[in-house]
Write a structure and sequence with these properties.
This protein is α/β, with parallel strands linked by helices. The protein has helices at 15-24, 35-38, 51-60, 64-72, 82-87, 183-199; strands at residues 5-9, 28-32, 43-46, 77-80, 88-91, 104-109, 120-124, 134-138, 143-147, 152-157, 160-166, 169-172. It has a seven-stranded mixed beta sheet with strand order 2-1-3-4-12-11-10. The longest helix is centred in the last third of the chain and has 17 residues, at 183-199.
């Protein structure tokens, strides 16, 4: 099977780091800003950054509704930090005008672990990833307050949910793209491969 094309939503945030991590995980990685670019990918990463800004830019670039439609249709999607917030069906404390793509039946609390100066790193055991724990980089990170029955909890930190999966949607409140450990991205690329196999 040909190498999957995985996009990174390139409106704001740590886009370059995800492109590097995806390439290391044997995907063809491309930035995505417009609906026509979204139409050409087999999977999509929504990076960390500022969730309100990403939301507003997605609307401005005309990509929010196409994103929602493709996620509803089963496009494999992975969100980190702000990307996790974007994939939540509900935000506990949204800013004015903030929208989400949705796709994971969860309620997320923004900046739950504290502000920028309270950022930290911690070893996180992630279900489905073999070997040592993943080094989680938490920067103004959200956590998941609650999940629906169809959501699989993949990791917790200090009693708070920090990684989840529902169908073809994956989300972490931490940033694996900043560590040089590409196992979470490899897990996502495996999800993209599996989805392509079912569609072909």
């Amino acid at each position: 099977m040909t190498t999957p094309v995985v996009g990174v939503l390139a409106l704001q945030g740590d886009v370059r780091e995800h492109l590097v991590a995806l390439a290391a995980a044997d995907a063809v990685a491309r930035p995505v800003r417009r609906p026509e670019e979204l139409a050409e990918v087999d999977g999509l990463v929504i990076p960390g950054g500022e969730s309100t800004t990403i939301s507003k830019l997605a609307v401005l670039f005309g990509v929010m509704e196409p994103l929602r439609a493709r996620v509803r249709a089963g496009l494999p999607v992975y969100g980190t930090c702000a990307g996790m917030i974007m994939l939540a069906d509900k935000i506990l404390d949204p800013r004015s005008g903030q929208e989400t793509i949705g796709g994971i039946d969860m309620i997320v609390r923004r900046n739950a672990f504290g502000r920028q100066n309270e950022s930290f790193e911690a070893a996180v055991d992630v279900r489905g990833i073999d070997g040592d724990p993943v080094e989680g980089v938490f920067i103004r990170a959200p956590w998941v307050e609650s999940v629906g029955a169809d959501v699989e909890v993949l990791a917790e930190h200090e009693g708070h949910i920090v990684a989840v999966r529902q169908g073809n949607a994956l989300a972490t409140s931490f940033h694996p793209e900043l560590t040089g450990d590409h196992r979470v991205h490899s897990l996502f690329v495996d999800m993209v491969h599996a989805n392509r196999a079912t569609e072909s």
